[in-house]
């Protein structure tokens, strides 16, 4: 994103770093995250209007503590240090950090000692979220204490020139009551950023950048039917028109009518041409008798690429591959902790760009999911589509435990349709991050009418989450679950028992495979 009004967040390994960026952006200011060890030259090139130092699990006194190679506090723009960031400011400027301080985790009452700048327009006390081991004992010489709590006598500080600030608590966390106001005071009043970051300005500058970058080249986009690739297609189409070629592959392991919905949406609502490739027979043939979840994923990923490559070969002048990659994936690969260990091999069309010598265009590599949804709204993508739950690329194949067959797909589709229909009827869809049915490779005994049954068990899963990285199981009103269970057992032949999954992530994952 090209803007002269950006805040740079240096990541010291905190679990909340992405939240800082989201909160700053909510204040209409563009923010980017970088690992703490980017060079001085890189920081100069980024030319921020302010810097935020994140928290982190380390102690500044540790041997390999994360410390930038230059004095970031003296970089020349306002700095806000959060938790570890505050301790780093104190450490570099001669304060005293107490490594033996009492750990503090949870809510605390912040008493404000100065209502200027950072705490402008705040009441005399407010609830904040603490999560720290070390704490600041003495601020650096000349620094003023601007806030304290019962446990932390030095809870917030300010440099003599009123440019450098540090807070022990986490303003980015939802539980800090006025956290957004504090960040707003920093980025708007102290750093002087004007309001420029919103979906409209993003769309405007993206269309310009994309059309300059792509020129008259052709771009190929694989449409999964998910929000990210759909909104990417609409944006790319606005920028390059008919040079965008969209392909949707029906893998045969989609929900009921999924491919039909995608094709209709593109043809009728967006008037964007889309090629539908029916791969259902090929996918099912390759998946026959395969039980191992990772093998299923690999087969599906490879089959997608094979079919995609086949249709791409028929097109001329394709130089780019469009992808709906989001910012969290980009940050993950840049993270100071390194790319996180692969728990499941998520498939995409990776491997194809090198094979076909394509360049990659990712219009959303700077955006969070909720921002893509907002861009979708602005571009006129229908509300029901933009707010749809995520759906995994390998589809129902990873929700049928054990081997996938046409019959089992039919059973699962029917149960899943009823489940989602009842969630919509109860007006709970928007409260839930993801809800789906899973068909287990287990049969159990039941009784229907006067007969004994011996049929499949269906598990229902529903979770709340903000990014899919962690999730809590959703607490349905019991009468909704009762109705769903009743309908599935009465209406779906092949299922005689319904169970509800009450596992959060971690330790569970959202999908069962
Ligand atoms: P897990 O099961 O890893 O899922 O907790 C987190 C989120 O990712 C989705 N998911 C996938 N998406 N390809 C995808 O495109 C995959 O192989 C895949 N596996 C999981 C899942 O639905 C949830 O939203």
Would you kindly provide a written description of the structure presented here, covering whatever features stand out?
The protein is α/β, with parallel strands linked by helices and 513 residues long. It has three domains: 6-190, Rossmann fold; 199-386, Rossmann fold (3-Layer(aba) Sandwich); 399-500, GMP Synthetase, Chain A, domain 3 (2-Layer Sandwich). 34% of the residues lie in helices and 23% in strands. It has 15 helices and 20 strands. The protein has helices at residues 17-26, 40-46, 84-93, 179-190, 199-214, 227-240, 258-270, 280-287, 293-313, 327-334, 352-356, 369-378, 383-386, 406-425, 478-491; strands at residues 6-11, 30-35, 50-53, 79-82, 96-98, 104-112, 125-132, 135-138, 144-148, 156-158, 164-167, 218-222, 244-250, 274-278, 318-322, 359-361, 434-448, 451-464, 472-473, 495-500. The strands form four sheets. It has a nine-stranded mixed β-sheet. Helix 5 (199-214) packs across helix 12 (369-378), helix 6 packs across helix 12 (369-378) and helix 14 runs antiparallel to helix 15 (478-491). The longest helix is centred in the middle third of the chain and has 21 residues, at 293-313. It is globular. The relative contact order is 0.09. The site of xanthosine-5'-monophosphate (XMP) has 14 residues, from loops.
